[in-house]
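FW: tagging you since you asked about this chain on Friday. Here's the raw sequence from the shared folder, copied in full. Didn't touch anything.
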Amino acid sequence: MASTTPTSRPQSAVEKSAITKVTIRLVPFVSFMFFINYLDRTAIGFAAPNGMNEDLALSAAQFGFASGVFFIGYILLEVPSNLALHRFGARKWLARIMVSWGIVALLFTWVQNFEQLVALRFLLGVAEAGFFPGAILFLSLWVPAAHRSKILALFYLVQPLTTVIGAPLAAILVVQGERLGIEGWRFMFLGVAVPAIIIGIVAFFYLKDRPADAKWLTTEEQVWLTGALETERKHTEKTHGQGRIRDAFKSGRVSRARMTQPGTVDEVDAQALAQ
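HL: got it, structure written out here
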């Protein structure tokens, strides 16, 4: 009996080269943006045992509240932030998110008490809202569905690496600050905030909203990517209709995510908005 094992879809030379260039050009940069995002979001956890709790006279309950208040602003503005990404373009919006959270993170260097810490943590959540699902959505808007799983899998690989690299890096910054005669935890906040501002500015010029604007693609590659993505967009609109903000909030995926732990919100919202 003849074999019925399905064969993989044939790819043209233009398709292969276009996807390869997108993978090399965009995935490492967006992944680095996420690495900085992780450092700024979790910096308070490294600062606490390295003098912050003692210097600010924080109780365990106060530290816990300051850590958790981040997610209030983050969750409330997550979906609107990603809809704004669609409206203003990924280049402008992701850059804006990075610069905004970098400025807020920088202010942690001079925090003096519990009240200031809580206010800054809330503002940090507001500033970072939508970055992770926005990054996933950005990559999805550049890659046709047939290649999307591979691209996103590479991006997801960064998450465990951030923990492996981030913790030692934070420790190095704390030690370096103490050597310079600065409170180590304050120097650490400075060290993780400045890169966010710099990379945010770089992202404004480095990222492009669509393949047609990417000079690093050949004309043939631009035409193929634009055509493939436009075909998918029309099919999605025909199947699901035009997305609106109230429809996003009515989404069962989004609603269920907000009722569970904050760590699941990013991924579910990204999947819902990408449809």
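FW: Confidence is low (pLDDT under 50) at residues 1-7, 253-265, 267-275.
HL: agreed, and The domain at 13-274 is CATH 1.20.1250.20 (Growth Hormone; Chain: A;).
FW: great, closing this out.
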